[in-house]
Amino acid sequence: MEEKTIKPTVEIYTDGACSGNPGKGGYGIVLRYKKNNGEYVTKELSEGFVTTTNNRMELLASIVALEALKTECHVVLTSDSKYLIDAIEKKWLDGWVKNNWRTASKKPVKNIDLWKRLIEVMKKHEIKFVWVKGHNGHEFNEICDKLAVNAYNGENLKTDEGFFQE
Which residues fall within 8 angstroms of residue 93, CB to CB, at 6 or more apart? Predict the structure, then answer.
C-alpha cells in the first residue's frame, strides 16, 4: 500500500515597497508554520534594491517566499498587491502566457522575468492567494511593510537586473 505524505501548511505574508516608483525598493516576508504542538515557527526575510518598482518588489516577495520552502506545501499567501492577486485570481497571467506575453490591449507585459519565475515556483505548491488591504492594521502586512522599508533604507542594496532589462 502506498503511503500518502501530508503536505505541511504554511502561511506566507508579503509586501513590497519603494521610495519613488521607480526608486529604492525592498520586500518583506513573514513565513509561519504551525508545529504539531500548536506552536508557530516564524521566519522573516527582506532585501533591498537600488532601483526598482513597487510591483517588482511585490512579485519578488512572493517568489522569494515560495522559493524558501524546502518541501511541497499547502500555502496561504497573503498580499496587499492587487497586481499580484488579480493576475492570479482573475486569470490575467494565464491570458498573458497564452497571448505570448501580451496584454489584452496587445502591449508587452511588464515584469516578464518575475512572472516566469513565479509560474515555475507555483508548480511546486498548492497555493491559495488572499488579498488584504495595505496599511490597514493587518498585523503581518504591517510587519512586512516595515521589513521592506527597512531593507531599502539599509546598506548593501542589490541591483534589480530585471528592472534594467525592460
Answer: 87, 115, 119
Cell of 125: 505548491
Neighbours of 132 (CB within 10 A): 16
What is the value of pTM for the model shown?
0.94
Burial (CB < 10 A; 0-12, 13-18, 19+), residue 58, is buried
Q: Which amino acid is at 77?
A: L
Is the per-residue pLDDT at 4 higher than 90?
no
Mapped onto helix, strand or coil, the DSSP state of residue 41 is: strand
Catalytic positions: 15-16, 58, 80, 135, 145
> Taking residues 136-159, what's their average pLDDT?
97
The x, y and z cell numbers of residue 61, run together, are 516577495
DSSP-derived 3-state class of residue 60: helix
